[in-house]
Design goal:
Shape: globular
Number of domains: 1
Structural class: alpha+beta
Strand content: 25-35%
Radius of gyration: 15 Å
Order of helices and strands: HHHEEEEEE
């Protein structure tokens, strides 16, 4: 339940007033075919193996892929692709689950880009789902 609430809050935050991309940028954007679940799992698991100490014990729940744009820094150009948001709950040294962390994976024509949402000062300047633009 907490995972679904976090994902909903994150989705609503993404819909808020982001520094917009232009309609021209959206029309010129190139997208890969929608990633299959096996490709998503492979990328997420590889990332978690590098990022957390005990990835096998972590609980994760990922959203379905949606077209989006994202960027590391708000003044950089936007990257377009299929965005998957994963809520990950890791265990600490005593085996207790800690707080949820949200990681984002953008499948682009130039590869997969990963974003740690906690590194954004204001996530709305960095990520937005295309189906929420103009709503």
């Amino acid at each position: 339940m907490k995972t679904k609430i976090l994902t909903l809050v994150l989705s609503l935050a993404l819909a808020a007033c982001a520094i917009p991309v232009t309609q021209s940028e959206i029309q010129q954007a190139k997208f890969t075919p929608q990633p299959k679940q096996t490709e998503i799992d492979k990328e997420v698991n590889a990332f978690l193996k590098m990022k957390i100490s005990n990835p096998e014990a972590a609980k994760k729940e990922c959203s379905p892929p949606r077209k989006a744009w994202a960027r590391d820094l708000s003044y950089k150009p936007a990257n377009f692709g299929w965005l998957v948001v994963c809520d990950v709950n890791t265990k600490d040294g005593q085996g207790n689950f800690g707080p949820l962390n949200a990681y984002m994976f953008l499948f682009t024509t130039s590869g997969v880009m990963t974003y740690d949402s906690s590194s954004f000062v204001n996530i709305n300047n960095n990520v937005q789902f295309l189906d929420l633009i103009g709503k």
